[in-house]
């Protein structure tokens, strides 16, 4: 639990928190807004603002349900500038023990007065005082056993359409565990690139930093709560990477000495890890700004890693030994790490992104040499973007076959697929498949540029 900001700068911290929430309401990604707005805050206030903003977004569905119990016309009746303030006040009351109740209420009232005038200060004051008296326990929510969709979309704070899909795919209890995992504050993992687990733990310990071995086969260390990732990366040659992403790298297999194009590489964790494992990697991405992040990593680690701005749908490369298509997706396996994504997603995004994935797979297939490997991966749990995409690809491309992988725990091997489910592994979610080109596509006898 982060300490509350002291009297000096406290008002500024609350205003930064409000600006972050307003940016998210306008469609800005929370992690990007955070990186832009928070760096100048003192460390104590940074932790407090991060907990308040990420927690408020993560539990937005739960908070709105509670606020609706105290608002005659519901949260939809509030001006866009006022609702985030009320949500922040509710989160402080219920989940930030270091903030006294009177302070949470008075701060919210003053913020409303500042942004919207006096008209709604009485409403905000009354709602938060009532909420403080009556609390926000599970008893104030629909029952999981009798109304699972209602429970998981309110207490569970996930969009109803996604809850409905997960109940159908994983059952009520499986969906409940997925929702629970989506509401946790995920740990940070460091993947070392040189040396061993023992070397990594020793370097961290010498620097006064905490770390314990990550899940089997992931080549990661879980950093201790509150550990600065920047400090850890200063002492260990590595990258911040969840075990799920690290398992995808392992699933690619032994590619030492082989030419590999990572088509959707930025921000670059998989490309860097594959090169560290011995592949000759070219990292491509359509976004120049995201490639800049990879460039910073490359410079930090003194890597020789070519970067190319290119569309995955139209890759400008001659055939290579291996291609990684880690495609854009709905990201439903990473909602704990990106809590705002759940509120941006719509069910129509699955179909829209499936079309993008299909085109990138087509582009990737054109640059896989005969005998070469195409690895398709996502961080979503939705079958249309995973096995459904693969099955449709194989119908169009009989020259490719599915082959299994190795080097990862058996529990995440689902037949020929790598499938990491957050509620089973307590990590991010991931999917990957290895597709081997056996022969040139029909009608193509050339070996030139695809």
Average residue pLDDT? 93
How many domains, in number, for the residues?
4
CATH-level-4 superfamily name of the largest domain: Vaccinia Virus protein VP39
Q: Predict the CATH topology of the largest domain.
A: Rossmann fold
CATH class term of the largest domain: Alpha Beta
Helix content: 40-55%
Uncertain segments are 445-450
Total count of strands: 13
Number of helical segments? 18
Shape: globular
CATH architecture of the largest domain: 3-Layer(aba) Sandwich
Q: Main beta sheet, described?
A: 9 strands, mixed
The CA-CA distance between the termini, in Å, is: 54 Å
Global structural class: alpha/beta
Summarize the SSE layout with pairings.
Blueprint: H1 10-25, H2 30-37, H3 43-58, H4 60-68, H5 83-95, H6 101-116, H7 121-134, H8 148-154, H9 160-182, E1 189-192, H10 197-206, E2 211-213, E3 220-223, H11 229-235, E4 238-240, H12 243-251, E5 259-262, H13 269-276, E6 280-285, H14 288-301, E7 307-309, E8 320-326, H15 341-344, H16 347-366, E9 368-378, H17 387-396, E10 400-403, E11 413-414, E12 417-420, H18 422-425, E13 430-437
Helix pairs in contact: 1-2, 1-3, 3-5, 4-5, 5-6, 5-7, 6-7, 8-9, 12-13
Primary descriptors:
alpha/beta; single chain; 450 residues; 18 helices; nine-stranded mixed β-sheet; N-utilizing Substance Protein B Homolog, Chain A; globular
Describe this structure in words.
With 450 residues, the protein is an alpha/beta fold. It folds into 4 domains: 10-140, Orthogonal Bundle (N-utilizing Substance Protein B Homolog, Chain A), CATH 1.10.940.10; 147-183, no CATH class; 189-240; 243-437, Rossmann fold (3-Layer(aba) Sandwich), CATH 3.40.50.150. The chain has 18 helices and 13 strands. The protein has helices at 10-25, 30-37, 43-58, 60-68, 83-95, 101-116, 121-134, 148-154, 160-182, 197-206, 229-235, 243-251, 269-276, 288-301, 341-344, 347-366, 387-396, 422-425, and strands spanning 189-192, 211-213, 220-223, 238-240, 259-262, 280-285, 307-309, 320-326, 368-378, 400-403, 413-414, 417-420, 430-437. Strand 11 (413-414) and strand 12 (417-420) form a beta hairpin. The longest helix is centred in the middle third of the chain and has 23 residues, at 160-182. The chain is globular and about 70 Å long. The termini are far apart. Residues 445-450 have low confidence and may be disordered.
